[in-house]
Amino acid sequence: MDVAEPVTLKTLAGELGLNVSTVSRVINAEPGTEAKWASPETIRRIQELARQRGYARNPHAASLRTSRSDLVGVIVPRLQDYVLATIYEGIDAAAEARGRVTVVANSLDDPIRQRLRTESLLARRVDGLIFGDAHQESPYLDELAARGVPLTLVSRRRAGHVSVTCDDEAGGRLAAEHLLSTGRRRFAVIAGAEYASTTLDRVGGFLEVLAGHGIGATDVDIHYTGFDAPAGQRAIAEILAGPSRPEAVFAVNDFAAIGAIGALQTLGISVPDDIAVVGYNDTPIAEAVNLTTVRSPMVEMGRLGFEKLLALLDKEEVQSERLAPQFIARSTA
């Protein structure tokens, strides 16, 4: 039985009467960039014949030619975290549109695990990395940059690295301005983790506005318990054990806010009549429970984080970007 010869770039070029290099450049071009190599009619002929002949691009051969694997590694604290999962969807959609593949790993927000997972991805020849779990004091990202590893940050920022985040300081200011407009003057904050820029920026913006109204940071009850619902529940226990009850609580994450509301309701404390609650991110569950919150552009954050990484891979000048938040008023504040 005769075995069909594989269809190669040389085969296609011969049938079309074109140079192999022209056919190769068109077929291996990133989607939308084929016009750099040929006329629209030539591109149409090449792509049509490739489909007819069942030509399949060899990613391994392409990798050897370009020194790129077309793989991008993504490190997140936890994919079960809705915010990071949504940001990752933005990354993955942008990667698919550019003919790239993403590989995601969980660090559990642990610097040692972050290092191990990252080195594992680098051993698999990823072209670059996107981090959603940056810690303010960890030197590892600086080490990677010194080694020449292309990387960008999403969700959290860190000095010296290209990042795409929500303008979290502005978001904190929006929360404070709203609560002050309702006449509240005694505040508590469920602040997340001190190693995350999301905590530092959101709390910082919140306190900045309060200070402008004569309420100092020492007058605000701040609790660094975490970002999830149990963290919100723990924070409420600590807050209510204090000397004075706040009139409003700002949680730097919707899930912590929802945990706080549950704990308050269990104790018979009315939200917002007794204590108002504001969250952050505007996840779908926030809308479902009518949570007043600050919306962050999660999908766009991921998309831009990926696009900036590609720009770094192409040796372009790239700047960090902060995306505008939006205050969403509902029934909890």
From TrEMBL:
GO molecular function per UniProt: DNA-binding transcription factor activity; transcription cis-regulatory region binding
Pfam families: Peripla_BP_3
UniProt-listed InterPro entries: HTH_LacI (IPR000843), LacI/GalR-like_sensor (IPR046335), Lambda_DNA-bd_dom_sf (IPR010982), Peripla_BP_I (IPR028082)
Span of domain HTH lacI-type: 7-66
Keyword Transmembrane: no
Keyword field contains DNA-binding: yes
SMART domains: HTH_LACI (SM00354)
Protein keywords: DNA-binding, Transcription, Transcription regulation
Protein name: LacI family transcriptional regulator
Organism name: Lysinibacter cavernae
